Amino acid sequence: MELTVGTFNIQHGIDYPRVLETGETRVDLQPVADAILEMRPDVLGLNEIYGAHPDMGNQAAELGYLTGLGATFAKAISIHGGDYGNALLSRFPVRTIRCIPIGVPKAERQYHGYYEDRVLLHAKLDVEGQTVSVLCCHFGLNPDEMEQAVEAVRREQEGIRHPLIFMGDLNLCPGSEPYRMLTAFLTDASLICDKPPLTFPSHVPDCQIDHIFVNSACTVQRVWVPEILYSDHRPILARISFSSCNSGENVV
């Protein structure tokens, strides 16, 4: 069995080329949907996306409609009376969903930078009878936020033997301490690449802060970054294979 999976920080649908050209922050989801259709993912994690919102609409549901993929939303914070967070688009049925809040209380914050509550989305998919766990998150910018998020991922994946994929805009580069913490229990899909798959900023990418990790039940066949400029991030995609009976756990 093989899946094409990916992660894409869509910057809530801002027309990024127009931002670069004019500074205008106009929102248009259609180019994002067209890009997703071109990528043809089986599963795609999305960061910086609105759920139900009085001004922005339900972007997760709209992208599901425009792409024909099932949409699952995980709220991280409220903005102007609406929901904002992560989402998952999938060709396969989502059987269970867990949303794990991640946030450093104000009294415990160690840095003067910008803090924001986050959420870890854990969806268990039924991939032709096989359970596949997909985790999606958008890490914070401060070291204590990152450490807390890594620990949330570690706890959530602990004991899982079926295929597991973790992905998102993690705001960290390979070689950093949070990255090393992640690689203690998951494998970076990008390790198969001859050179780092750069994702940010999309018009002149010079670093990789968007990542896909897998557990030992998965084999990475290919990793690539499409030249898509509809956000300040480029998406990153991977082709993942696994045995349909390697975990002994099937969806009932």
Brief synopsis:
The protein has 252 residues and is an alpha+beta fold. It contains five helices and twelve strands.
Quaternary status:
single chain
What distance separates the N and C termini? 19 Å
Structural class: alpha+beta
Uncertain segments are none
Radius of gyration: 17 Å
In percent, how much strand structure appears in the residues?
A: 25-35%
Number of helices: 5
DSSP strand tally: 12
* Sheet with most strands: 6 strands, mixed
User: How confident is the prediction overall: mean pLDDT?
Assistant: 94
Spatial shape: globular
Give the topology.
Blueprint: E1 2-9, H1 16-22, H2 29-39, E2 43-50, H3 59-67, E3 70-79, E4 82-90, E5 94-102, E6 118-127, E7 130-136, H4 143-157, E8 164-169, H5 177-182, E9 187-188, E10 210-214, E11 219-224, E12 236-241
Parallel strand pairs: 1-2, 7-8
Antiparallel strand pairs: 1-12, 2-4, 3-4, 5-6, 6-7, 8-10, 9-10, 11-12
Helix pairs in contact: 2-3
Task: Describe what this molecule looks like in 3D.
The chain is built from 5 helices and 12 strands. The model has no long low-confidence stretch (mean pLDDT 94). Helix 2 packs across helix 3 (59-67). The chain is an alpha+beta fold and 252 residues long. It has a 6-stranded mixed beta sheet with strand order 3-4-2-1-12-11. A hairpin with a 2-residue loop joins strand 6 and strand 7 (130-136). The radius of gyration is 17 Å and the shape is globular.
